[in-house]
Amino acid sequence: MNYLIFDKISNSAVQEKFEKIKSLFQGLLNDRSIPRDIKRVIQKGIDLIKESKDDVKNITSNIIYLINEISLDNNLPYHGQSTINRCLTILKTLND
């Protein structure tokens, strides 16, 4: 857990939410029914969580922007859409 983002975040609840999002994203990456183009976007979201030096609001806004488009993709299976919507809900609570 020595990610750069955690140096800037003091609240453990925020850290837990980012870990939850990362874990949900990792589950989607490991799912063989998720198309490759969607996996690329999800990987970008994980990379933003791991490597970003911005504050929490900028990170969440960037990830929301990335995954908002794929939540409407017709090639995404229903369970993938549910997971993406769950991530969006968690991210929007962080963005408030």
Overview of this protein structure:
There is one protein chain. With 96 residues, this protein is an all-alpha fold. It has a single domain (11-95), classed as Up-down Bundle (de novo design (two linked rop proteins)), CATH 1.20.1440.50. The chain has five helices and no strands. It has helices at residues 4-8, 12-30, 36-51, 56-70, 78-95. The radius of gyration is 13 Å and the shape is globular.
Question: In summary, what is this structure?
Answer:
Helices cover 76% and strands 0% of the residues. With 96 residues, the chain is an all-alpha fold.
Give the biggest sheet.
none
**C-alpha end-to-end distance:** 24 Å
How many distinct helices?
5
- Rg, Å, rounded: 13 Å
Give the low-pLDDT segments. Answer: 1-9
Number of domains: 1
The H/E string reads HHHHH
- At the first level of CATH, the class is Mainly Alpha
Classify the secondary structure makeup into a structural class: mainly alpha
Predict the CATH topology: de novo design (two linked rop proteins)
* Number of beta strands: 0
Percent of sequence in beta strands = under 5%
